[in-house]
User: Fold UDP-4-amino-4, 6-dideoxy-N-acetyl-beta-L-altrosamine transaminase from Temperatibacter marinus.
Amino acid sequence: MVSETSDMSFLPYGRQTIEEDDVNAVISVLKSDFLTTGPAIPAFEKKLEQTVGASHAVLCNSGTAALHLAFKAIGLTQGDKVIVPAQTFVATASAAMHEGAEVILCDVDPSSGLMTAEYVKDALRKTAGPVKAICPVLLNGSSQGIDEVVDLAKSQDITVIIDACHALGGYYDEARIRRIGGNQAHVLTAFSFHPVKTIAMGEGGAVTTHSEDFAESMRSLRHHGIQRADFKGSLTQDYGAPWYHEFHSTAYNYRASDMQAALGLSQLAKLDRFVEGRRLLVAEYCTHFDGDPIITPVASIDDKHSAWHLMAVHLNFDKMKVDKIEVVKALKEKNIGTQVHYIPLQRQPLFERKDQQALTGADRYYQTILSLPLYPSMTKEDVAYVSASLKGITQKS
Ligand SMILES: *Cc1c(COP(=O)(O)O)cnc(C)c1O
Assistant:
C-alpha cells in the first residue's frame, strides 16, 4: 500500500543545516597545510568568545569532553560532591564521575524539566558535607531560572558548570543582552556542536570562562598536558631547547580538527539566523497547539531568552486512548521522527541505588514528554503536517 506520505522525506527530531559556504570552508582546510591544530582553532575560539561575551573559549572534540575539561579545570577530585539534575543527558553526570566525584541527582520542575533554585536548595539541604559544583542544564535551550541558581551557588561559594549543550545562542535575560556562555565569576559553560545542536561541527564542544587560569589548564589538558615553560623536570641541560616540553600529569587528546573548527566558524556566523528560524517554527507549532486539550508545548513563545533547541511537548495521556510507544510508532509511519529527552538518570542502571531519593518531578516530566521535529530548514508546511498528524493520533478514540 502506498501511504499518503510516501513521497515526503523523513522529518527527524533535529538535524544540521549545512550550506554551500560551510562546505567550502571545510574544503579550503583540506587544501591547506593544517588538518589539525592549525589557524582555524584560534579563529573559532575568538569568534565564540566575541559571540557570547567570554574572555576565553576552549575548543575540544565534544560536549562531553568540554564538560570533563571543565570539571578537571576546577580541580574536581575523588569524593567531591556535584549536583546534577536528573533530567539530562548522561554526559553531564558521567563527566564528573570520571574524576571520582559523587553525583547528587537533583529533582526538576515537572513542567519545564529544569532544576530551579528551589530544587537545588532542597538537594543542598539533603546533602551532607560541602558541594564542589552545581551543574544546571539548560534543557530544551531554556535559561528560565538560571540566574537564581547561579546566585544561590555563588552565595555558598560553589562553582557552577552550566551544561549549555542545548543553549548556544540563548540569553540569560529577557532583554537579550547577556549571552549564555558570557563572563561570570565562578561559572564555566560547556557547549556541544553535535549535528542536532544549534551549530554543527560533526563532533565538537567548547568551554567558555572568564578565567585565564581555567582556560590555560583546559588547553593543556586537551593536548596531553603538554607544558613548555615552567621547568620542573630533571633534564636541566635541555631546558629551553626548541623541542623541550614537560608532562606533569596524565591528560587527554580532546583536540578538534581544523576541518571541524572551520565548519564551526562558518556555522557560528549564522547563529542568530538559526536561533530565529527555530523561534519562528516554535511559534508556528504553538499556534497549532493553542487550546489543544492534550498537547502542551514546554516552551512558551514569550520566553525571550531561549535558544529553542527542542520542540518538546507534554502529552496528556489521561485523556488519550494510545500510549507513548503507539504515538511514536504512528508518527514514524507518517515519516515523522521524535525523541524522548530524557529517561531520568535515577532510572538508569548507572545510578539506580536503594538510597536514591524519589525524584518525582523528573519522573513526571519523562512520562508526558516528547520532542517533535525542529531545525532551521523545516518549513511552516512541515510544522503544519507534524501538528496535524500528532493531533490526529492523540485524539484517536
Ligand atoms: C549533546 C549533549 C551533551 C554531550 O555533547 P556531545 O557533543 O554529544 O558529547 C551533553 N549534555 C547535553 C545536555 C547534551 O544535549
About this structure: The radius of gyration is 22 Å. The mean pLDDT is 94. The pocket of pyridoxal-5'-phosphate is lined by residues 62-64, 88-89, 91-92, 137, 163, 165-166, 192, 194, 205 (CB under 6 Å). The chain has twelve helices and twelve strands.
